[in-house]
Design a protein that fits this description.
The structure is a homodimer. Helix content of chain A is about 40%, strand content about 0%. The first copy, chain A, is built from 14 helices and 2 strands, in the order H-H-H-H-H-H-H-H-H-H-H-E-H-E-H-H. Chain A has a two-stranded antiparallel sheet. Chain A is globular and about 70 Å long.
Chain lengths: ~350, ~350
C-alpha cells in the first residue's frame, strides 16, 4: 500500500505541475478539483453570484451613450454644489474604491456627514441605497447629497437654475433625453447620474473567477477563509452578487458594540420606518472591494479590516474568532477586489457670464 | 470700371465658394489668401507660436511612462492633504479648463486661497509659476500647495510619511525613480507631478491651426479680433506660445484699477523680489482656453470675459474699447481653446491599517 500511496502522490504532483502551466484564468474540471474542492465551490456558488461583465439595465431608465456621458459629467460636476467645490466624486472617488478615506465625509463649509460614505462601485446591485436604505435605487439616491445641507448643500431650485445657466448642458440634456421639451430637470439629473453609476461595476475579481469555475483563482488560505466565511455565518448576511447589500440587519445581533462603534444617536433604519424593530438596523454593506474602502462601519471608526472582521464575529455571530481565523477571512475578503472602472475624466461645459456663481 | 468691379467680386465669390468646399483643416496657400490675409497671418506668426502636439521635455526630469503615471496618481491624490479631502485636481480641475470656478479656491478648513487658481493647462509653457512667479517651474511649484496651510495644509514631513504608509506607492515610486534607494521623497513627488502636468497641453486650437497656415480656421470676426488684439497692444504682453505667461507687468500700466480689482494688500511680485518697481506687478497670465476659466484676474473678481477685456484695455493700454471692439477681441479669445486633455482617472493604491489618517 505504501508504494501505491507514493505513486498516487507522484501522479498528483505531476498533475499539479501540469495544472500550474495552464493559464490561471482557465476553468478547472470537477474531476481535477477533487471532492472537497468541488463541495466548497458548489456551496459558494449557491450563496454568491459573480459581478457581470457589463452593467445591468435600470428599469424605466434606458442607458444610452448620451445619457451615460451626461451622467458622468454630472457625477464630476462641482457646480452642482452650492460652493462649486464638491461633486459626487469628492466623496465617492472612483480612484479610491468608490469612497473616500474619511470616517465621515467633509461637506459644505467643512461639515462632517452623518455616516461613512458607502462605495458607489457595484452599488447598482444593492437592494436599496444609503446605510438606512431610504432610497430604493440609484436614481432616488442620486439627488439626495446634492441638496443635503451638510453635503453639497444646493437649494433644490438651484440645481436646475445652475445647469440651465451653463449653455453646454442644454445640448447634453437634449441629447440624453430626446423629445423632451424641457429636459433640464432634477429628475433627469438623477436619471443620468444613475445610468452612469450603474456602469461603475468591478467584474473579474479572483472570487468571481473562482465561482465561475477557476479553482486556482483562490489560494489555499483564501479558500480556508471562504469556508470560514460560510461556516461561521458571515454569509448569512453577506451573500449574493454584492457579498452584502441585499438585506438589513441590526448592528449587534448577539452583542451590541459600545457607543464608540454604535453611537446611541443614530438609530439607523428606525428613522425611515419608525418601527421599533428597526432600531440600530442598517443595510448590510457590500464587501466587494472592501480592502480599498477603509475606514469601516457606518461610523467609519474602524480602520483595520482585521479588526472589523473581529467586531463582526463578536457582535453579529457571538463568535470569538481566533487570530488565524481572522487572517483567513481577511485573506478571502481580499479576493473580492475586481477590475476597477476605467473612467476618462469628463470635460465639463464652461460657465459663462450669466452662470450662477458659487455660494461658499 | 463698374463692370470690372462686379466681375472681380463675382470671381472672388466663386473662389470663396471653391474654398468652402475644401476641408476646413487644410492649409491655404499664400496666393489663395490674398495680401491682406497674408499680412495678418504673417504678423500673427511673428508674435505667437502654436501649442505643440506633444509635451515638451523638462530639463533634468525625464518623462518616463512610469513617472507620468505616478505623477497622475499624485495629482489626483487627496491623501497628500492633511484632510485627505483636497488634491491638486480639486482646484486645477482638468474638466474645468485646468482651474476651478471660484474667485479664490476653497482649501483646508474651508479657507480661501489668496489668489485665483491659475490653469494647469499649458502651464509648462509659462516662464515661471504662480501669479507672482515665485516658482521657476512646475517642479518647484508642485510642492507649494501641498504644504500651504490654507490649501492642502500637509506638514512637510507628513507628505513622505503619508506616502510611505501606502504600500502601493512604494512600487510606484520605485518604478518611476529606478535605482534610487529611497525614492519616496518630497523632491520626487514634485518631479512626478511636474512631468504629468507637462502632459496637460491643449494643441489644435483654431488659432493654432490658423498660424499653422489654415486661414479658414478663424472667422472674419475672429480675424478682426486678432488684428485688434495686435493693433491695440494686447499682444505686447500676451504673446508667444501661451498668449501670455512669458513676462511680468504691473496691473495698471496706464490707470490703476480700483481696490475691488487690485486690493492694496496684495502687492504681487514685490513680495518675491522686494523691489519697489515690482509693486502690483503680476505674471501676465496665459489666455489659452480663457473662455473655460472664469472668473478672471488674480482676484478672480471679474466673471465676464468681455468685462475683463474692457478692464485690460483701460488699465493696461489706456484705451476705451468700444463694445464692438470688445466683441471682436472676445471672439478672437474664443479661438484659443484647444483639444482638452483626455485623462483616465487613476486608481490609487489603498490605505492600510498603518496608513496615516486624515487630520481635518
Amino acid at each position: 500500500m505504501k508504494g501505491f500511496t507514493v505513486l498516487v502522490i507522484a501522479i498528483a504532483g505531476l498533475a499539479l505541475t501540469a495544472c500550474d502551466r495552464r493559464p490561471s484564468a482557465g476553468k478547472t474540471t470537477a474531476a481535477a478539483r477533487g471532492p472537497a474542492e468541488e463541495a466548497l465551490m458548489t456551496r459558494a456558488r449557491e450563496i454568491f453570484k459573480p459581478i457581470p461583465a457589463s452593467p445591468p439595465a435600470l428599469p424605466g431608465n434606458e442607458a444610452t451613450p448620451a445619457k451615460i456621458e451626461l451622467g458622468k459629467m454630472l457625477y464630476f460636476e462641482p457646480r452642482l454644489s452650492a460652493s462649486h467645490a464638491i461633486s459626487c466624486s469628492s466623496c465617492h472617488n472612483i480612484g479610491l474604491g468608490g469612497a473616500d478615506t474619511q470616517s465621515t465625509s467633509l461637506g459644505h463649509r467643512w461639515q462632517h456627514g452623518g455616516r461613512n460614505a458607502p462605495t458607489v462601485l457595484n452599488a447598482v446591485f444593492n437592494t436599496a441605497q444609503f446605510w438606512d436604505g431610504r432610497a430604493k435605487d440609484l436614481e432616488q439616491q442620486a439627488g439626495g447629497p446634492i441638496v443635503n445641507p451638510v453635503e453639497m448643500a444646493s437649494p433644490p431650485a438651484h440645481v436646475v437654475e445652475q445647469l440651465e445657466g451653463i449653455p453646454g448642458y442644454r445640448d447634453a440634456f437634449a441629447k440624453a433625453f430626446p423629445g423632451q421639451h424641457d429636459p433640464i430637470t432634477a429628475a433627469n439629473v438623477a436619471k443620468a447620474i444613475a445610468v452612469f453609476e450603474a456602469t461603475l461595476i468591478t467584474p473579474n475579481a479572483p472570487f468571481d473567477r473562482y465561482i465561475e469555475g477557476d479553482a486556482k483563482a483562490l489560494s489555499p488560505a483564501q479558500k480556508e477563509g471562504l469556508a470560514l466565511f460560510m461556516d461561521k455565518g458571515c454569509a448569512a448576511c453577506h451573500n449574493g452578487i454584492n457579498v452584502g447589500g441585499g438585506m438589513y440587519a441590526p448592528f449587534g445581533v448577539v452583542a451590541k458594540p459600545g457607543a464608540d462603534l454604535l453611537p446611541k444617536g443614530d438609530k439607523g433604519r428606525f428613522a425611515v420606518t419608525r418601527s421599533p424593530g428597526d432600531a440600530y438596523v442598517f443595510k448590510v454593506p457590500t464587501l466587494r472591494n472592501i480592502t480599498l474602502t477603509a475606514p469601516y462601519f457606518h461610523t467609519g471608526l474602524v480602520w483595520d479590516l482585521r479588526q472589523a472582521v473581529g467586531v463582526m464575529g463578536a457582535s453579529q455571530l457571538g463568535a470569538e474568532l481566533s487570530t488565524e481565523e481572522i487572517d483567513r477571512i481577511t485573506a478571502f475578503l481580499g479576493t473580492l477586489t475586481g477590475d476597477q472602472p476605467k473612467v476618462t475624466a469628463p470635460i465639463l461645459p464652461p460657465s459663462v457670464a450669466a452662470t450662477s456663481r458659487p455660494r461658499p
